[in-house]
Amino acid sequence: MRFHRLVPVALALCLGMAPVPAGAHPHVFIDVDFGLRFTERGLDAVQVTWRFDDVYSDAMLPDYLKKGERQLSAEAVARLDKDIFSQLAPYRYYTDVAVDGVPRGPAQAKGFTARVDGKVLVFEFLIPLGTPVKAGRVDLAGFDPDYFIEYSTVSAKPVATGAPYRFACERKRFRRDTEITGPIDVSGLSCTIG
């Protein structure tokens, strides 16, 4: 088994689920939203929000919420970061970012936080782009090459923060190769900057 296949299995173990080998269909479903952070120099980072499905949230939250708690403590968020989120760095946090069709290399996510919204777990983090994008096309998609996790892009209208900048985004399907099932279409955003 390749090392990157161990991460989803480790996630399942961390969340109290029985280990399940990567199969031909996803086992975890995440709604993903993207936000755009601008400076005077252009788009400099992408804000990512993951909303886990009910079943996965039910499996995960008992390990991180104390009895009677409805919200994650700072200690629980730190444990989620250590146990799960920081382990995703070698996989670019399952977030594909391409500028004018060229994938951006691995980046270190910043500002990780987690919370409970209703009964579901939500992760939020920022992916710096390194060199700001002044003009061009930026494609964004959540993607797990093992197809253990399926990401669905929620909004075609990302929230923009920072300096005012012109941009327009639309939902798009991107073709990606999976380790098990071959090519699939994944949902994402294609944004024109400038």
Features:
mainly beta; six-stranded mixed β-sheet; 3 helices; disordered N terminus
How does this structure look, described?
The chain has helices at 3-14, 54-60, 74-83; strands spanning 28-39, 42-52, 95-99, 102-103, 110-117, 120-133, 136-142, 149-153, 160-162, 167-178, 182-193. By secondary structure, it is mostly beta strands. Strands 1, 2, 5, 6, 8 and 9 form a six-stranded mixed sheet that branches. A five-stranded antiparallel sheet has the order 4-3-7-11-10, with no helix packed on it. It is globular.
In short:
This protein has three helices and eleven strands; from the N terminus they run αββααβββββββββ. It is mainly beta and 194 residues long.
Shape: globular
Helix proportion range: 10-25%
**Integer average pLDDT:** 88
User: Separation of termini?
Assistant: 44 Å
Strand content: over 45%
State the major sheet. 6 strands, mixed
Q: What is the CA-based Rg, rounded?
A: 17 Å
Which class of secondary structure composition applies to the elements?
mainly beta
The residue ranges in which pLDDT falls below 50 over 5 or more consecutive positions are 1-7, 12-23
* Number of DSSP E strands: 11
SSE order, one letter for each helix or strand? HEEHHEEEEEEEEE
Total count of helical runs of at least 4 residues:
3
